[in-house]
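Here is an idea for our session: we take a single protein and study its fold together. To get us started, please write out a protein record for me. Once you have written the record down, we can walk along the chain together.
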Amino acid sequence: MGSLLAPVKRLLLFDGRGASPHSQNFFEKFNFERTFQQPGALRDFIRSRLGLPFRVLYQPLVAPPVSLEDHAPGLGEHFAAVTQIVIACGRLIYAIDEVDRFTSANFSPPGLDYLINQGRHVQVSLVCTSRRPAQIPRELTSQAHLFYVFKNTEPGDLDYLKPYLGREAIDRLPTLDDYRFVRWEESEGISIGGGPEKNF
């Protein structure tokens, strides 16, 4: 993800894990000029930069879970608020790390659904990562022009990806080495890439 986003001039990345020492260290190399944890401060900043470039990270502060069923209380509310800010701002790349925290194969929250289907009208493009491909909404994958898929052995995820990547690529996914990936691009087809030197 890092090398894909490096040249982007107007970028907002939503960290789907929320603020933690580990995620802050991971995103440090992305050269963000600001990190936000509340939507009001983000909204005010973007209002002041409407015609200017910016690269910002949104890492919501979320309360620790109180039960096993409540894995990240408040995270969905942060995501909804930030997504509405993105729609209002327009003309940017909206990167969502771990989009599967908010979606399923048949569901995406209303703001994200709008961006998937109408984002071109506000000039917003999406870059999404997911731990579980089968949890990505079909509408999102149907609009994707580029996939990077790392080693995967989960049968449900492999079945989900098969229509996009094809049998040959799916057969290779379980045997990929660390940091290697199958790359699918709409105009170029399938290739294998990556390696220890890659910074994704």
Q: What stands out?
A: The CA atoms of residues 23 and 86 lie 22 Å apart.
